[in-house]
From TrEMBL:
Keywords: ATP-binding, NAD, Nucleotide-binding, Nucleotidyltransferase, Pyridine nucleotide biosynthesis, Transferase
Protein's name in the database: Probable nicotinate-nucleotide adenylyltransferase
Catalytic activity: nicotinate beta-D-ribonucleotide + ATP + H(+) = deamido-NAD(+) + diphosphate
Role, per record: Catalyzes the reversible adenylation of nicotinate mononucleotide (NaMN) to nicotinic acid adenine dinucleotide (NaAD).
Pathway of action: Cofactor biosynthesis; NAD(+) biosynthesis; deamido-NAD(+) from nicotinate D-ribonucleotide: step 1/1
Chain ranges of the Cytidyltransferase-like domain: 6-165
The UniProt record lists the keyword Cell cycle: no
Entry's Gene Ontology molecular function annotations: nucleotidyltransferase activity
Similarity comment: Belongs to the NadD family.
Name of the gene: nadD
Signal peptide residues on this chain, from the entry's feature table: none
InterPro entries in alphabetical order: Cyt_trans-like (IPR004821), NadD/NMNAT (IPR005248), Rossmann-like_a/b/a_fold (IPR014729)
EC number: 2.7.7.18
Length: 192
């Protein structure tokens, strides 16, 4: 059975931290592929600085152009919004009955997991691979949970918020995002 890691995110915009996580999960944890699932709207986040989902998808695609086992997914574009992960997972299981899906997330999302729709069902039916994030230590209830694996990987300070603020302040974002993504942000005048 092929095993796919689903890395859900707003990707507003995608940054080098996301790419390091996706590449680590795709190549060091026994997965066949990682799919970056672009969420139109995270139910727990205000839309505020969220740019349109097509531009976010385009930046994801530019960023993974040369990655063999990392793909983007638009599955949530055609589902109701905001994007509840459990609904997407059920939809994906129906569409790909012979694929084993696992979730990928940063440890910040563990702190809000109990606010997610049907989180007990997610934990019952799926395995979650968690990448640690500075300032978000995983609580023992999660590190000891049979459905959760916390990777022992270097911490990264990257965030999309930092990038959006930097662009707004006219700062250079080279290497925080791939060159192709930086050019896209500049050419379209995003986040100004
Ligand atoms: N530096 C990081 N370390 C670990 N996980 C991260 C990091 N940045 C993002 N993630 C994870 O990537 C996924 C998508 O995150 P998201 O697109 O919201 O990026 P973000 O940098 O957290 O954005 P924002 O600053 O807008 O909240 C989430 O599971 C998040 O936990
Ligand atoms: O299903 C939920 O209730 C739920 C609550 C909060 C976040 N999520 C999803 O978690 C993913 C991470 O969100 P973000 O904004 O941190 O990239 C994104 O796909 C959201 O739709 C899902």
């Amino acid at each position: 059975m092929r095993k796919i890691g689903l890395f859900f995110g707003s990707f507003n915009p995608i940054h080098t931290g996301h790419l390091i996580i996706a590449n680590y999960m795709a190549n060091y944890t026994g997965l066949d592929e990682v799919w970056l699932v672009v969420s139109p709207h995270n139910p727990l986040k205000k839309k505020g600085s969220l740019i349109n989902m097509y531009d976010r998808l385009e930046m994801v695609n530019l960023a993974i152009e040369r990655a063999e086992n990392i793909r983007s997914s638009t599955i949530e574009f055609s589902l109701p919004q905001p994007s509840y992960t459990i609904d997407t997972l059920i939809h994906l299981r129906e569409k790909y009955p012979t694929t084993d899906f696992v979730l990928i997330m940063g440890s910040d999302n563990l702190q809000s997991l109990k606010k997610w729709k049907n989180y007990e069902i997610i934990l019952r039916d799926y395995h979650i691979q968690v990448y640690p994030r500075p300032d978000y230590p995983a609580a023992p209830e999660w590190t000891q949970h049979p459905s959760i694996t916390l990777t022992d990987t270097p911490l990264m300070e990257f965030s999309s918020t930092f990038i959006r603020n930097a662009v707004k302040n006219g700062k250079n974002i080279r290497y925080f995002v791939p060159d192709s993504v930086m050019a896209f942000i500049e050419n379209k005048g995003l986040y100004r």
